[in-house]
Amino acid sequence: PRALSLFEDMVLSPTLRPDTVSYNVTMSACEKGREWPSVLALFADMRHAALEPNLITFNTTISALEKGQQWQRAGQLLADLQLRRLKPDVITFSAAMTASARATQWEETLALLHEMQQAVEPDKV
After folding, report:
1. What's the pTM?
2. Which phi-psi region, left, alpha or beta, contains residue 86 (left: φ > 0; alpha: ψ -120 to 50)?
3. H or E segment at 15?
4. Tens of pLDDT along 22-64?
């Protein structure tokens, strides 16, 4: 996608430095284009660039993995997010549950639903 090309130009620039937001925007564009391998590559690049992924980074990556039918990787990323002391939200759990449900992993899907019910407070309107 064009976003990835622009991001690569930024990386090669002597004056511009990608930050977490620029990674997230590029990853989101790749996720929407169903380019989950590119999203994973950018996720790995963030770590090499000494940038900490945030909840948006994880949600985008888990969503990309869901679209790429990579339910096991999505589950691993959810565990990684929790190890980093980030708090998953409804978006995180929804993407992980959709990934496991599409793979007909019903026990995993129900376990994630139960975990979400314990971890996420309902919105108050």
Report:
1. 0.90
2. beta
3. none
4. 999 999 999 999 999 999 999 999 989 999 999 999 999 999 9
- Per-residue pLDDT of 59-88, as tens digits, reads 999 999 999 999 999 999 999 999 999 999
Contact between residue 39 and residue 74 where contact means Cβ atoms under 8 Å apart: no
Give the separation between CA 88 and CA 58, rounded to whole angstroms.
9
Please calculate the CA angle 43-48-54 and round it to the nearest 5 degrees.
Answer: 45
DSSP state of 49: T
Residue type, 40: L
- Torsion, Cα 40 54 107 119, to 10 degrees, reads 180
The whole-angstrom separation of Cα 54 and Cα 97 is 20
CB contact at 8 A, 4 and 38:
yes
How far, in Å, CA of 22 to CA of 11, rounded?
10
104 contacts 71 by C-beta, under 8 angstroms: no
Decide: 86 and 62 in contact? Cβ < 8 Å: no
Give me the residue label for tokens 């940038």.
51
